[in-house]
Write a structure and sequence with these properties.
- By secondary structure, the chain is an alpha+beta fold.
- It has a domain at about 1-10 and about 55-145: Immunoglobulin-like.
- It is about 20% helix and about 35% strand.
- A hairpin with a 2-residue loop joins strand 9 and strand 10 (about 140-145).
- The termini are far apart.
Length: about 160
Amino acid sequence: MANVPMTQKNSIVDQLDHLHQRIASRAYDLFRGRNGWGDALGDWFSAEAELVSKPAVELREQDGILTIAAALPGVDAKDITVDITPQDVVIKAATEHKHTETKGQVHRSEFTAGQYFRSLPFPKAVDATKAKAEYQNGMLNITVPIAPEVRAKRVDIKAA
């Protein structure tokens, strides 16, 4: 079992914006490749599928702990990054597959190099400082405690 480092962030918006820009740029290239004819929305979906894969996830709550299980088959633990805020988590992983002629002629291969990217909002605020991530047998498991509820407090006003 390998520990996966987690980085605490204030926001994941910058990462989502960067991904959005990459997809938009590729979709525009596809659109221009047909001289502006065709399906712009279809180009967006094609670009998204080409650049990013979404791993299957399960988010579970039990005894004040949120647990995320994410399927990342064929990924090395060193290629996984997890960024966490009290509201969200972002899972990123790079995949790589190379063909070498020394292993014979490839007739068919559905393995690809690419990137897994998944952002998940938490159903409740979490204590990101206590989050842990472990990777074993193609599964990333993240555990994080739910943050204690902050209750409003009445403040008395003193007359001057």
